[in-house]
Amino acid sequence: MVRILDDIQALAAARALAAAFTREASQRDSERRLPLPELEQFSRSGLWGISVPRVYGGAGVSHATLAEVIATIAAADGSLGQIPQNHFYAVEILRVNGSEAQKRYYFERILAGERFGNALAELGTRTSQERRTRLSKDGDGFRINGRKFYATGALYAHRIPVSVIDDDGVQQLAIVKRDAEGVSVIDDWSGFGQRTTGSGSVVLEDVWVTAEEVLPFQSAFERPTSLGPVAQLLHAAIDIGIARAALHDAAVFVRTRSRAWIDSKVERAIDDPLTIREFGDLAVRLAGAEALLELAGAAVDAAAWDPTVASVAAASIAVAEARVLSTEISLAAGSKLFELAGTQATLAEHNLDRHWRNARTHTLHDPVRWKYHAVGNYYLNEKNPPRHGAI
User: Where is the Acyl-CoA dehydrogenase C-terminal domain (predicted)?
Assistant: First the structure.
């Protein structure tokens, strides 16, 4: 197992992996071939441990670096870029809410190559934040009963953080072993995008956990912490990676296959002035999203270093701004690709629609209209955004 020591090594490792992951990304999507060997390679690279704080043996990379690593992998394969998102979320929960013993125990296992998934969201609840899965006291430990969905990464995980409601009605996080008795991970994700993320169901039936495997969760939003901004930053990075892939593939197709429009009076599609203009527009919008992602990373660093009401609000707004542009450019690039490349680009053998499908699926995670509202309210009315992890 490689142990990455700094930001430079992390970025270099991500670029090397991305070159390998790109090669069969289209086939994995079209065949819904689960990326098991790729995930093993991803884990062995040491990248899943880069956000572990240095005091615990990790690289403790900046959040801008963490976001760029995710964007780089997502540009190669959108699903592979999303799978570790909740792993890094779990690392951040441990950092801000774990006991010293929990940090030492779990961080060492993460650095040794263990992958964390998630079992947070549920279907059929009144809101996306509501939870029904129960954590019930049983002797010196607890039993968990419930059903989860959108459990990205659980299919590939060694441990699954599960959001639960305890006997007092307080939300906690239980870190459950993937192979624990009573745990069923069901590969029933049928979304038309992000097809190999394994974002299906987790069923928990009388699953036993010890007190040491449970840590506070709700309290991370009752006080200012960087948890919400970190989660949202990673979502923005995934979308930016998808946008990069769409723009790259559009350019390759136009250079090698597309025909110039008859009224352009040019021989090659790449010389069509209106096509050139559209590529320029997409490139500028992508550069803007990338710049906001980097600025948001710096704001999250500041909030993680000194979590105050003001610093966490500023980080949330910076990330919301990045997510507005990352949402829009990922959708625009995935759609405009076909307009610029032409009808040939819609043929199934090219599978270029995967970029739009991936963007449309992933950008539904949190409604962008509410990010506009949060940003506007912050600047116009000096209202801080809510601390619930979805802004």
Answer: 233-366
